[in-house]
Amino acid sequence: MVSGDAPAAAQAIARAVGIDAVHAGITPQGKAEVVRALQQQGRRVAFVGDGINDAPALAQAEVGIALAGGTDIAIEAADVTLAHGGLGSLVDALRVARASIATIRGNLFWAFGYNVLLIPVAAGLFSRWGLHLSPMLAGVAMGMSSLFVLGNSLRLRALRGWTSGVDGAGRDDAPSAALPPAAPTVSPPNRSPEMNETTIEVGGMSCQHCVAAVTKALQAVPGVQRADVDLAQARARVAGDAPAQALLDAVTQAGYEARLPA
After folding, report:
1. In angstroms, what CA-CA distances link 32 with 25, 40, 61, 95?
2. Which residue among 34, 46, 120, 227 is least crowded, i.e. fewest CB within 10 A of its CB?
3. Looking at the whole model, is its pTM more than 0.70?
4. How many Å apart are CA 12 and CA 19, to the nearest integer?
5. Residue 198: inside a domain, yes or no?
6. Cα-Cα-Cα-Cα dihedral of 113, 115, 121, 125, to 10°?
7. Which positions fall inside the HMA domain (predicted)?
8. Range of the domain at 12
């Protein structure tokens, strides 16, 4: 994982998803250098990113992969865009790519072998031995060859059952389901209409994934009714009766810097 986030935040995310190698606090050009270093080791690199800072690395990699919800610059720099978003669809993209390569190789093998065997026969090179094809049969044979290649390629459509179906109905929904739902904004009848609001300055956030992580950490604190995290202002506004220190500790444990405004 190559991230521009603070080391603590990057390590927390890496532990959550099971990634061992982590490069944190990396600049956009630094990300491209990481890709270039792997290429110098003889590796073919695929890089996945969705932000402006990922564009240099996406362009440097053999295969740049952008997410549908990413920035326009990232999508333009990438070779592939995952239409359904989410890293889970990356596995499906790899399967589709491998199946496509296998189909292309099969079609080339069939077409090459078919033509090598039958074109000399159709040209009359073996007519002295009684082996020949009439123009009508030769035309039918070429048509059958094209139909075979077409039918073999259409088998790839069967992959849609376990790619778009999984992404659209299960995999894309999974990350959202993992995040705790936002607390209702309508006050219950037995609760005072006014709630205490605590503002926290949060450092180390660089993307919406960071916002989701901080929101999740704050909403897990007992007494929190609502947590609104603003990436641009690097602040979180928390409604409820949770102690301020508990909120600061929750954000810190999530891998981000937290303090009360001066």
Report:
1. 13, 12, 8, 26
2. 120
3. no
4. 10
5. yes
6. -100
7. 196-259
8. 7-86
